[in-house]
Amino acid sequence: MKNLFSSFRFKLVLSLFLIVIVILGSLYYVVNRTTQSEFRDYVVRGRSNQLRGTRETLLSYYRTNGSWNGADSVFKDRVGSNVGGNGKGPGSSASSPASGARHVALVGPDGRIIASYDGEMVGKKIPGDLLSQGISLELDGKKIGTLLAGPLLAAELDQSERQFLESVNRRIIYAGAVGLAVALLLGWLLIKQLTRPLNKLTRATREVSQGKLDHRVSVDSNDELGELAESFNRMTSSLQESEEIRRRMIGDIAHELRTPLTVLNGEVEAIREGVYEPTDEKLEEIQEDINLLNRLIEDLRELTLAEAGELELNREPVDLAELIRKSTNKLSDLTAESDVELKTDLPEAVPETELDADRILQVINNLVKNAISHTESGEVRISLEEQPEDIVMKITDTGEGIPEDKLEHVFDRFYRVDSSRSGEGGSGLGLSIAKELVRAHGGEIWINSEPGNGTTVSFSLPKN
């Protein structure tokens, strides 16, 4: 029961119920007041029409006397003879003349009662909207008064008239009750239809929170709830992909660490067992394996910081052309050992750009090393191009190229286009690190390749 009252569906139904109650209450108030006002005007108009015979008598009196002074006795006599128990039409009564005439009044031009069968009403002011329902008394084009009959200031109605209003009010209440029941029934059906996909999303969220990332929600509509379901499915797909990447990354890291550790362990065991002598050459090989482990760990740390946006950049004005020359000088030994020629295509003048020189030099070195390693013979060319909003650097090789279905993965951690190269030089993090370092500078990196026609890796850096 507690869960029912706290459920979203119950809250919607309660909200709908309160809204309908407020609307029906407001309508009842307005309709009731309007009905009473219109019915009172109708009664006054009907009763006043019964006094048209009195109109000429009162006009004749005013014409003779020039005022309403002393009209009270004439008014009462005339009204008593015209309004009685046998009156017809609205407001007729089966009681004495006094009962029919006690709400008849002669009202002066100022809206105040001059004469009335009920002496207590003399001198009281009549509302303008009520005066318009009476019989206007005019003489020589001048309004001299109004003759009214019916519920005036006290808004008193006869028993039959009150019964009629009560009957109308009862019907309004019945209609409101039926409307409320229909509104709640339709509202319940609509709310049930509305909350069904929400319940599905709730159950799906519970499943995902328990680790079932393959759970999906069926999309049954094109409205906001359907869009929410699609967003949920995209989110779970992204989570599932991220989980798969995480597991694959852990496996890759374990694999990358296992190889040098296994080698180190074997060499140390061999030295301990006397298979090898601990010569300088053997110790240097062990040191290289240790350096490889250190580089791998440092690359992972750097990549993690870059992806989290926590990599500190020491920005300063840098000449990119000079940075490229520095990289080619550093990598000249690497090209000398292969049948690859390293060339540059640089403009005469390139504006200095605010960036971290060491990080961008690392990007260039990673990309050039990768290009050289995938080019058996030919050339690797570094070019620089100034554009209106940024500077674009391209590293182009004449190697074997990359298949189209593998292009989208080249920047993934530990990904190698040729799996047979696994373990051959480098950790498989070079392109991933290059991508994150470029993005940390506010730039973008992309790759174009065609099998057999080489590869071009480009990245942009925004101008300052």
What is the topology?
Layout: H1 2-6, H2 8-49, H3 52-65, H4 71-82, H5 97-101, E1 104-107, E2 113-116, H6 128-131, E3 135-139, E4 142-149, H7 159-209, H8 224-272, H9 280-307, E5 316-318, H10 320-330, H11 332-336, E6 339-345, E7 353-355, H12 357-373, E8 377-386, E9 390-397, H13 430-440, E10 445-449, E11 455-462
Parallel strand pairs: 6-8
Antiparallel strand pairs: 1-2, 1-4, 3-4, 5-7, 8-9, 9-11, 10-11
Structure description:
The chain has 13 helices and eleven strands. Strand 10 and strand 11 (455-462) form a beta hairpin. The chain has 464 residues and is an alpha+beta fold. A five-stranded mixed β-sheet has the order 6-8-9-11-10. The protein has a four-stranded antiparallel β-sheet with strand order 2-1-4-3. A two-stranded antiparallel ribbon has the order 5-7. The model is unreliable at 84-101 and 420-425 (pLDDT under 50). The radius of gyration is 49 Å and the shape is elongated.
Order of helices and strands: HHHHHEEHEEHHHEHHEEHEEHEE
Envelope shape: elongated
Q: Which whole number gives the mean pLDDT? A: 78
Instruction: Give the strand order of the largest sheet, numbering strands 1, 2, ... along the chain.
Output: 6-8-9-11-10
Low-confidence stretches: 84-101, 420-425
Count of runs of 4 or more consecutive helical residues: 13
Strands, count: 11
Helix percentage range: 40-55%
Terminal residue distance: 64 Å
Query: What is the rounded Rg?
Result: 49 Å
Strand content: 5-15%
Structural class: alpha+beta
Main sheet: strands, sense, barrel: 5 strands, mixed
